[in-house]
Design a protein that fits this description.
142 residues, alpha+beta, five-stranded mixed sheet, 42% helix
């Protein structure tokens, strides 16, 4: 099996609600676990940023579904290619809604700080991972 990585960003469609995102996540977690896909999804200010890792065919299949999903607008493929190691091996679908009103500002800032610190500690230096973390920092700091 060759390990493959894909990074994209998109905007949420205008009518996308929090409950829609939770439905996407539930279905994605199940599918990703079954097909050994890992990665990270960020959502902030109606913008998605995601990195996927796994077997090439499965990762490309997921991305094709995303491209056909009307809940995404302006999808941009940022980076894709083979890689040696997983960075998110324990994350079938990590997600945190930074726009949620349920989160106290202190908890939100702590999460952002921890995620940014994690990005600095990542040992994997593929161009996709580097791009993902650079864009994640930019998205989180806006």
């Amino acid at each position: 099996m060759s390990l493959y990585e894909l990074t994209y960003c998109s905007f949420a469609s205008n009518n996308l609600k929090q409950r829609d995102i939770l439905k996407i996540l539930a279905k994605s977690k199940e599918h990703n676990k079954k097909h050994n896909i890992t990665g990270c999804l960020l959502y902030h200010n109606h913008e998605f940023l995601q990195i996927l890792e796994g077997e090439e065919d499965y990762v490309l299949e997921v991305f094709e579904k995303i491209q056909n999903d009307k809940r995404h607008d302006q999808i941009i493929l940022l980076e894709q290619g083979k890689k040696n190691n997983r960075l998110f091996e324990n994350w079938n679908m990590t997600y945190y809604d930074l726009n949620s009103e349920e989160h106290v500002d202190v908890n939100k800032q702590l999460f952002i700080d921890n995620l940014i610190n994690f990005s600095h500690l990542s040992l994997e230096n593929s161009s996709g991972v580097t791009l993902f973390w650079r864009l994640a920092r930019q998205l989180l700091l806006t």
